UniProtKB/TrEMBL annotation:
EC code: 2.7.7.4
Tagged with keyword Transmembrane: no
SUPFAM superfamilies xref list: Adenine nucleotide alpha hydrolases-like
Organism expressing this protein natively: Actinomadura napierensis
Source taxonomy: Bacteria, Bacillati, Actinomycetota, Actinomycetes, Streptosporangiales
Alphabetized InterPro entries for the sequence: PAPS_reduct_dom, Rossmann-like_a/b/a_fold, SO4_adenylTrfase_ssu, Sulfate_adenylyltrnsfr_sub2
Family under the similarity heading: Belongs to the PAPS reductase family. CysD subfamily.
Gene name per UniProt: cysD
Keyword line: ATP-binding, Nucleotide-binding, Nucleotidyltransferase, Transferase
Keyword match Nucleotidyltransferase: yes
Chain residue ranges for the region called Disordered: 282-305
Protein name: Sulfate adenylyltransferase subunit 2
Domain of life from the UniProt record: Bacteria
Pfam families: PAPS_reduct
GO molecular function: nucleotidyltransferase activity
Top-level class of the enzyme under EC nomenclature: transferase
Amino acid sequence: MQRCDYLLSQLDVLEAESIHIFREVAAEFERPVLLFSGGKDSIVMLRLAQKAFWPAPIPFPVMHVDTGHNFPEVMEFRDRRVAELGVRLIVASVQDAIDSGRVVEQKGRRASRNRLQITPLLDAIEEHGFDAAFGGARRDEEKARAKERVVSFRDEFGQWDPKNQRPELWNLFNTRITQGEHVRVFPLSNWTELDIWDYVRREELELPPIYFAHTRRVFERDGLLLDSETGFANRGDDEPEFEASVRYRTVGDASCTGAVKSNAESLEEVIAEIAATRITERGQTRADDRTSEAAMEDRKKEGYF
């Protein structure tokens, strides 16, 4: 018998694992949804979902939890990409939750709508009856990821408790839930930021232009360069704005997402920059995650991530 040896690259292994997760969840759950922000991680998840079910269309909708404080370039990309794929887009609006009195907007210079996303997300999950939500969390993002699994259980209140995590033996996922409960599913659990960028290059994926170096009006706060063009970051009189060549490592609420100084205008230059950095993506770009090491874990317990 002729023997054939197959050598898979690291990206091939990661891709195969993620595709398996998508297919397993689609088979086990009745109403999954993919959380899509227009950022690089959710763009990669969309491509993986395409491959998982090709030539059939993606069999579940995508949902964006819209803070209303988004970068215009990202919103334009989100709408165009969803239209190209022909998938249904559901928007869970923070502004609608504020207007209805479901949440109260923060005040002051450091006000952010980041935490306010929890309520409209859980409301949308309940309204549409979703029992599984794909998220883009990676293993290198923050310490709380070490306590989670690929399939992360949420109780009837949408809360995460590390003590309730089910064991995952090999690639066997525990998908049993009762009425009112749901799970968050992380197909990128074993990916890093560098893996994401390598995959974007290999698959020739389009990204919003703010991921690459461009000139932008910014101001400095607590060592972060915050956007002053959209007006969402509540710049004070003692925080002068200036122009700089920057790019974004992540995209989110413009009020608390910082840019990094960069001249990287191409994929190759960005990848070289990421490979050389020793600062995590969230540590360098997210003001609200700097308040404490437990900030992300607290939000997971509240039900957002």
